[in-house]
Amino acid sequence: SWSIMASKDDARKLMGIVPSQKRGQRACLQCKLVKTEEQFYQDGCDNCEDLEMQGSRDLVNRCTTQNFFGIIALMDPGKSWVGRWQRLNQLQRGCYAMSVSGTLND
User: Fold this and answer.
1) Which residues, 6 or more positions from 57, have their beta carbon under 8 angstroms from its beta carbon?
2) CA-to-CA distance for 74 and 104, rounded, in angstroms?
3) DSSP-assigned beta bridge partners for residue 33
4) Taking a C-beta distance cutoff of 8 angstroms, is the pair 44, 31 a contact?
5) Do the beta carbons of residue 53 and residue 30 sit within 8 Å?
6) Looking at residue 89, what DSSP letter applies?
7) Dist. CA 1–CA 74, nearest whole Å
8) Which letter does DSSP use for residue 98 in this model?
9) DSSP secondary-structure letter at 77?
10) What are the phi and psi torsion angles at 72 (to 5°)?
11) pLDDT by residue (tens digit) across 50-76?
12) Neighbours of 8 (CB within 10 A)
């Protein structure tokens, strides 16, 4: 039989892509993924490995912003009309800002 409840493995996978707390949330300036500063520091950005944020607080602060509006939770970006509408359908599942303020400087 089919269950709505997520398995323990699914729940563990989700913990890495959902912001772990409300305070200290930041959005990636390149893809708009929302995580906490600590999650970006520990894991980097799930979509933007080229930014190499993992392990660098300086890069986390330069490549992310606290200035964002709205959050969209995408569990299956390829099938989500909201994902297509926001042009997030090619990205990893997770929480995304509707809009971000700031620019990514090289």
Assistant:
1) 37, 41
2) 23
3) 96
4) no
5) no
6) T
7) 25
8) E
9) T
10) -115, 125
11) 999 999 999 999 999 999 999 988 888
12) 8
The closest alpha carbon to 64, from 21, 103, 7, belongs to 103
Q: What predicted TM-score, i.e. pTM, was given to this entire model?
A: 0.79
Of 47, 50, 35, the C-alpha closest to 89 is 47
Give the β-pairing of 94-100 and 68-74: antiparallel
Residue 63 in tokens: 């490549």
Q: Who's near 18: CB < 8 A, 6+ residues apart?
A: 73, 94, 95
Residue-wise pLDDT for 39-53, tens only, equals 999 999 999 999 999
pLDDT band per the 50, 70, 90 thresholds, residue 80: confident
User: Is residue 86 within 8 Å of 53, Cβ to Cβ?
Assistant: no
Tokens 């330069």, located at residue: 62
